[in-house]
Specification:
The chain is an alpha/beta fold. It has two domains: 410 residues, no CATH class; 59 residues, no CATH class. The chain is 29% helix and 13% strand. The strands form three sheets. It has a nine-stranded mixed β-sheet with strand order 7-1-6-8-2-9-12-5-13, sandwiched between helices. A two-stranded antiparallel sheet has the order 3-4. It has a two-stranded antiparallel ribbon with strand order 10-11. Helix 4 runs parallel beside helix 12 and helix 11 runs parallel beside helix 12.
Length: 561
């Protein structure tokens, strides 16, 4: 009789007897039958046109009118969306009681979160503190190498520490949010990307944002809050490999024309299209829609001219020619689908022109599939969490090498719980096997790196800082206390809290309520003292009083042969 395997390889799909056969794109992604993707928000160019014209440049008033280029000098932002309901609490990031991460839960509570009694936080590690090239655990199954407390054998943490240098880790801190959401559904409004762009005013030198799929829901597995969906100005453009990134600044085949000649051609086309479009009637529903379409068509040519001027060699966006990326992902690692996607997106969000205070894109979203891993033994989830951690660590280390700050947010649609059966395989690591979906054990977390110094928590005492580092809390039984904060039982409020915390990194939290209101958006976190309860960090050391990043990017990471 055939015996069911309790371990699946990294890219093998997950098959559940307790789930219906996958039918939608989201269900295929959650169970690993297809891959996640990365998307960059921006405007595509129309076909190239040739004309004879005198030398010209893109007029400054046109650049301003069409809002071309000009990043906003904000902290790069990347969200990781682990499709399917991954574990975060306990076995990865510690989520404690009302006193914070180190206000430990009961043994039964940690068992629900996948940890047997001899591995729960607070119990001494039998062989003393665990050490690695980056840091050392606390010796009690906790590890605060990254500021935020992880379980010392967390697969996320092991993956992150595999990629970050000790110098990078020393300047990382984080926070965790106890926040339940529904299992196995794309209807959870976790995706903060357009809030980061629209409310927090984040824009890169070329693009607004990076998201993970080409859809109307924000480009990820989990959707945008409905209130952000009408902001089509920030719609995402798909990028999940190096060739997609290169295509962002390719302006077409101009038969060997020089950069100056291409700029002249496209500037001339801008002038001609403006004259011709003024006489056209697209016959859309309203005069305003007609005018908007004409304006966007005109700006396409001006944008192409600007790209030709600013990025004459597309290889500046090539991950294969970036020495920092090739050392973070050595050998053939970029052949891994998730590593190449992560590298492409972090290149656009974290990378940028030498001397610039902005990246090429303002924000990024990376969806990773196959995280509905209950019923597949513990090892299956461990190796997938390890790879996700390596992707997170790569983003942090790349920001470190580029000398700029970054904020990472990690979330999943729902979570899961464990039974009492131990997986003693090498990758199972003696932990309890995941047995079922459980939205009540869910949390999401953020990591923030700053090149000037470790981000500083709010609060005048260690006790106050502990409750700022953990927003909301768990009951002793390992489930979210749904009355602990407004986002504990509302994915949308938790999404708003991510936007508010991002703004706080820039010292902009005082503008949070007004900016939501001025954009016609509602929020339930309040302002002032009330809002402060849901914020983790003070303004970053690398951000000035005007809310702008002060550190700039080097130009030596590119190897052009």
């Amino acid at each position: 009789m055939a015996k069911d395997r309790l371990f699946l390889g990294l890219d093998e799909p997950l098959k559940h007897n307790c789930h219906a056969r996958p039918k939608t794109r989201r269900e295929f992604l959650a169970q690993g039958f297809t891959t996640g993707a990365g998307v960059v928000a921006g405007c595509s160019t129309l076909g190239s046109l040739l004309a004879t014209t005198a030398a010209a440049d893109v007029p400054s008033e046109v650049i301003e009118l069409c809002q071309i280029g000009g990043g906003t000098s904000k902290v790069p932002f990347i969200a990781f969306d682990l499709a399917g309901g991954a574990n975060t609490s306990g076995s990865n990031v510690l989520v404690g009681g009302a006193g914070g991460q180190m206000d430990f839960l009961s043994t039964a509570g940690y068992a629900r979160q996948g940890l047997p009694g001899d591995q729960v936080p607070g119990v001494a590690e039998p062989n003393g503190p665990l050490s690695n090239a980056t840091g050392t655990s606390n010796g009690d199954h906790t590890d605060t190498t990254l500021g935020l407390a992880f379980h010392s054998d967390s697969a996320f943490l092991r993956g992150i520490l595999d990629k970050v240098s000790p110098e990078c880790a020393a300047n990382v801190n984080g926070f965790v949010m106890a926040a339940r959401s529904e299992n196995d559904t794309g209807n959870n409004p976790h995706n903060p990307i357009r809030g980061i762009n629209m409310v927090a005013q984040n824009k890169g030198d070329i693009l607004y944002a990076v998201a993970s799929r080409n859809n109307d829901m924000g480009g990820g597995n989990s959707r945008l809050p409905t209130k952000f969906m009408n902001s089509n100005e920030f719609r995402e453009t798909k990028v999940d490999r190096r060739t997609d990134a290169l295509g962002l600044v390719k302006v077409g085949d101009f038969n060997g024309l020089s950069t100056d000649e291409v700029v002249s051609v496209m500037t001339s086309v801008w002038e001609m299209s403006k004259a011709k479009l003024s006489k056209m009637d697209p016959k859309l529903a309203t005069a305003q829609l007609n005018d908007d379409l004409k304006f966007k068509l005109q700006c396409v040519y001006a944008e192409t001219a600007h790209l030709a001027r600013e990025y004459p060699d597309p290889r500046v966006l090539d991950i294969a020619e970036d020495s920092f990326i090739s050392s973070i992902f050595p050998g053939d690692e970029l052949n891994d689908r998730e590593f190449q996607k992560t590298a492409s997106i972090m290149k656009l969000v974290v990378g940028g022109t030498g001397g610039s205070t902005s990246g090429y894109a303002g924000a990024g979203h990376i969806s990773m599939g196959g995280y509905d891993y209950h019923g597949q033994g513990r090892a299956t989830g461990e190796v997938r969490d390890l790879r996700a951690g390596r992707c997170m660590g790569a983003c942090l280390e790349y920001a470190h090498r580029m000398g700029v700050p970054i904020m990472l947010v990690v979330y999943s649609d729902g979570s899961l719980s464990a039974g009492g059966q131990v997986d003693n395989s090498a990758d199972g690591r003696g932990k309890f096997m995941w047995t079922s979906d459980n939205s009540n054990t869910r949390s999401q977390f953020a990591l923030v790196y700053d090149p000037v110094g470790r981000p500083v928590l709010r609060g005048a005492t260690p006790e106050a800082q502990a409750v700022h580092q953990q927003i909301g809390y768990m009951r002793a039984d390992g489930n979210v206390e749904t009355n602990s904060w407004p986002g504990a039982n509302s994915a949308e409020v938790a999404c708003d809290a991510i936007v508010a915390n991002y703004m706080a990194l820039h010292g902009m939290e005082g503008q949070f309520a007004n900016l939501y209101a001025s954009n016609g958006l509602t929020q339930s976190l309040g302002s002032g003292v009330q809002l402060d309860n849901y914020l983790a960090f003070q303004r970053l050391p690398s951000v000035d009083e005007s809310g702008n990043v002060t550190t700039t990017r080097p130009s030596s990471e590119i190897i052009l042969l």
